[in-house]
Amino acid sequence: MQLDDDAVKVAINRLRRAEGQIAGVIRMLEQGRDCKDVVTQLAAVSRALDRAGFTIVASGLKQCLLEEGGKGELDVAQMEKLFLSLA
Predict the structure, then answer these.
(1) Where does the pLDDT of residue 41 fall: very low under 50, low under 70, confident under 90, or very high at 90 and above?
(2) Which pLDDT belongs to residue 74?
(3) What is the rounded distance in angstroms from the CA atom of residue 8 to the CA atom of residue 19?
(4) For residue 85, what are the CA distances in angstroms to 13, 38, 53, 57?
(5) Residues 6 or more apart from 8 whose CB is under 8 A from it?
(6) Cβ(57)–Cβ(85) under 8 Å?
(7) Coil, strand or helix: which one is 1?
(8) Is 75 left (phi over 0), alpha (psi -120 to 50) or beta?
């Protein structure tokens, strides 16, 4: 299944943001920053990754529904597995 170009751009932007946040967390650890600050930033990275994943899964679901004028075969079990893998 091919992903929507707009969804791919959104996901890439979120992943690049998360990449920068991860680099920031590494610097924080190297600098001996407070645990609370590090954990707060880790939570932000986690949310960014989750949002990128949900964007990709939602785009894939949309593409499945739109294929062949709505007659695309939707593998419900596969889509459920993808959503649950992000939970």
Answers:
(1) very high
(2) 62
(3) 16
(4) 21, 25, 9, 10
(5) 56, 59
(6) no
(7) coil
(8) beta
